[in-house]
Amino acid sequence: MTLTQTDQPASGQGVGVPRRRGVPPVLVFLGRRLAQLVVVVWIVEVATFLMVRLIPGDPAREVLGPRASAAAIAGLRRQLGLDQPFLTQYLRYTGHVLGLDFGTSFYTRLPVSQLLASRLGPELELIGTAIAMVLVFGIAGGLLLGILTREARHPRLESLAVLVLGIVGSVPGYVAATGLAFVFAVTLKWFPVAGNTPASAVVLPALAIALPLAALLARIVRVETLNALAQNYVRGARSKRLGRPAIYLRYVLPNVLAAALTLGGTIFTQLIGSAIIVESVFAWNGLGLLLTQAVLHLDFPVVEGAALLLALIVVVVNTLVDVAVSLVDPRSAAGRGLAVA
Amino acid sequence: MAGPAAGRIRHPVLRAFVRAPGGLIGAGLLLGLLVLAVVGPMIWGHPATVTDLNVPYQVHSPEHPLGTDSLGRDVLARTLSATRLTLVLGLSAAAISAVVGFGIGTAVAALGPRARGIGRRAIESSLSFPPILLALFLVAIIGAGARGAVIAIGLGAAPGFARLAENFATSVGSREFIASAKATGVGRVRLMQRYLLPNMAEPLVLAGLAYVAGAIIDISGLDFLGLGVQPPAYDWGTLLTAGVQSIYVTPFAGMAPAFMIMLTGTSLVFFGEALSRALNPRLWVTGPRRDRRAERARAGRAGKAGLAGPAAARPAPATGAADPAGPVVADAVVADAVVVENLRITLPSGGGPRALVDGVSFRLRAGEVLGIVGESGSGKTLTSLAIGQLLPHPLRTTATRIELGGIELTTLPPGRLARVLGTGLAMIFQDPMSSMNPASRAGSQLTDGARRHRGLSREEARAEAVQRLGEVRIGDARRALRRYPHQFSGGMQQRIMIAMGLMARPRVLIADEPTTALDVTVQAQVLEVLRDINASEGTAIILISHNLGVINQLCDRVLVMYAGRVVEEGDRERLLADPQHPYTKALLASVPVLPGTVPSGTSPAAELKTIPGRPPRPDEDVPGCSFAARCPLAISRCTAERPALTAAAAGGKVACFVVTGAITGEAVR
Fold first, then answer.
1. How far apart are the CA of A14 and the nearest CA of chain B, in angstroms?
2. What are the residue ranges of helices labelled H in B157-288?
3. In this model, does residue A264 exceed pLDDT 80?
4. Residue B331 phi, psi dihedral angles, 5° rounding
5. Closest CA to B27 of B245, B274, B215
6. Are A9 and B434 inside 8 Å of each other by CB?
7. Contact A7/B127, CB-based, under 8 Å?
8. d(Cα B382, Cα B356) in Å, to the nearest integer?
């Protein structure tokens, strides 16, 4: 029996990432992730193209109403490109999308790209703030609860926390938004009721989006904390008498984060969905408000553009979550790449 | 919540449902909602549509307790009568998602491996989109209104069900009986119908039910955006929207439907959780996080109730094993590495504390290797954890003495305790694969203890770690420091754990089943390393194992534990060659091959003996010897009185009346 046999790494490096000579596994991972992103965006683009064509009956009639003249309808059909063969329609549409040209809004008569550009900033501001809140409240709260209720300590606190988090987690964003607006904007007048200014205006909508999802994340984090605290490596760390802060920060937190981000990754895309609705409560001029109003007005060019851009944001956020997971979890595909010694 | 009532219900499924937290509350609320859905429109349907333009936007009045809307209609009546439409829409949408999702999911699962991979990826991708975004998109195509909202929300949530179904179908599909069905030539479609659908009915219904509340919330979201139910029809979502828009004048108008939505959601969550618990027998006894201790405590309570009479409050162990003068012979000049005297570990429970370890006393001399053997549950691990002061909550320790290197641990203030234990004791646990923190590199885990307790710098600690890794025969130690745990094999991880323990330069190393999870060749390496350390550094070792082969290879002295007590103690050679206690004999007889030693009275060729019966549970009150019930030699005294650990004629100590009493060796077959 020779020692060298067992001195080889257990799984071999990068089981999930094939080793290519000269290409660092990190790049392979990122490249693959990027390719996935492109495929998904392309599918969304096809879907937005099909949308107008899938409307039962004549979309132009649908938009212009029953009393429109035949000439007007023919004009709109031409504007939408519906008079062309299917493939030509698709190629033209794709060409326009690649040139960031989504046509002109039926409703405001403004170029769609201009509308999108003006709404992108506020959208990212809202989503970014909400994500930060979800991370801070969800992780800190869940970790604290996990530590307090470890090994079935504080059973009353545990049931209370599970109940409260369950209730808060099931509140739809717009109900939270209404409640928050009533208390903090109407009654206490700490924040504006609606609009994008002043800078503090982002707090309430972001909070309304973040609170239910933070409760959801806190539940996951709490369970994962209990899980990590019951692991052998935590017992080992305690047997080394490292002290609580070191154990929680270095042994518990990274493992909790990896598991919570893997399990709770969809929280961040749900957050974008919640933002679409909450923007209406606070008249926050983001992409979500633009999209919902466009759907109401049957403003198809804007629907196409806003849906495509929101989908792009969703895909990018997803990719970022995956990258974050790989950074905290050395066992994930990319982590394996990053960990090569 | 429903504790006392739960005991009387016979049917296990019902009982589990009632016992689940909130199960009854959820069921009650849900029933109320269903009744409301049926009678609501009959009773309040008309009042809800009566407009009274004289009283628009009333906040509260005797006629309108929750006020009125913009047309003077009663908010309470509208909220109650909207229950039916809301629930119908929610149920329809959930049914659409469940049926479509499960259709897609099972279809994907039935595909060939390659197509299945693509299908799975497509489901994952669509899952990453928020359902409301998909729904908005679909509403744009179908058109606004109740029908459009239900279809859009239903389809929007379908990917989640598709993934669930695909996962489930794939896992069911890989089971043995499916394989045999395939082997007998049953086609894929038949397979689905005959085997998969019955197995998937339960998760399908549960997930669908769980989503009803979600669907109601999602539809109300569309209502809120003006894309859902259109006037004059109304559901909670439209009422909520109206309330939100008039929040300045009539703050409560929006609260009523919001409350109803939340109530529905909460009751469905409770109901669904209780239902899934009731349908899953694995969750009946304990909750997901309640571990075996809680289970044991509960079992104890039940057992206690059945036990007749006054034996309940057992007096402190006055007999035998607790005798502190017995086992202690102060002959050593050097302080003993570990002294444990009269250790008792208890689990608090309803019927008073229950002893898991009782009256254990032993010494580990400097540089000695002491083996502790016994079946699982005999208290070996708890004893070692008690020395390290690592017992989990809510276990309690009492002991006359627990000393490490002559320092009494039980009375030490926490700060000093951390230092004494951090530098004096290292522990290695079973299952090396879970002993290292998977999220950080080996180097930082190897060095953190030494840096904290010995004040080494990063570089000094790393240099020492390299040296220690060399001692445990990890090649290319510098490179190993930069690796993550998953990059090592199990044997390497265990040797790294040993190196980690050595970084503290401990006086004592406790190794709890260090080789159990490893294969035989790796076991040998780990034992070799332990032997080296003991020889070269004089580190005293407590080796806990149920494997007598391992004990035989390494130990100077052996302690045999049974049901929380020491039953025999002695030098390894003597004890393995000439066991005294009937339990030790039985234990040795149940070992297939014991290198170098043949237990007396048995030939190696003799058939393996299993020990009949089982050890008493901690909640069982055994007044006499715990082994008496399984012991072939038991006499009446054995069940009445507990034997003390006393010196045996053959050497060592043994707790057995038969061996140490009038009847000696020759009576033992």
1. 10
2. 158-173, 176-183, 188-191, 197-224, 236-245, 255-279
3. no
4. -115, -10
5. B274
6. no
7. no
8. 8
What whole-number distance in Å separates Cα of residue A197 and Cα of residue A174? 20
Task: Please identify among residues 10-69 of chain A the ones whose CB lies closer than 8 Å to any CB of chain B.
Answer: 10-11, 13, 36, 40, 43, 47-48, 51, 54-56, 62
| E runs forming strands in B546-652 | 557-562, 565-571, 646-647
Which residues contact residue B529 at a Cβ distance below 8 angstroms, ignoring those fewer than 6 apart?
B471, B472, B473, B495, B498
- Among A276, A62, A208, A42, CA closest to B148: A62
The amino acid present at A178, given as its one-letter code, is T
Three-state DSSP at B181 gives: helix
Interchain proximity B139–A300, CB inside 8 Å: no
Q: How far is B598 from chain A (nearest CA, A)?
A: 27
| Domains of chain B, first to last | 12-282 (1.10.3720.10), 338-577 (3.40.50.300), 606-669 (no CATH)
Residue A316 touches partner B, C-beta closer than 8 Å? no
Q: Which pTM does this prediction carry?
A: 0.73
User: How far A187 CA sits from the closest chain B CA (Å)?
Assistant: 9
d(CA A184, CA A187): 6
Q: What is the C-alpha separation between B291 and A150, in angstroms, rounded? A: 11
Among B144, B258, B448, select the one facing A242 at the smallest CB separation.
B448
The predicted structure's pLDDT at residue A209: 93
Residue B630, both tokens: 């399984």
Q: Is the dihedral of CA B159, B164, B165, B171 positive or negative?
A: positive
The candidate with the shortest Cα–Cα distance to A331, out of A18, A6, A31, A15, is A15
**Which of the residue ranges A257-266, B168-177, B280-289, B415-424 would you say has the lowest mean pLDDT?**
B280-289
Phi-psi region of B575 (alpha: psi -120 to 50; beta: other; left: phi over 0): alpha
Residue B137 pLDDT grade (very low, low, confident, very high; cuts 50, 70, 90)? confident
Reported as a single tens digit per residue, the pLDDT across A110-129 is 999 999 999 999 999 999 99
Q: Which of A239, A254, A294 sits opposite B388 (nearest CB)?
A: A239
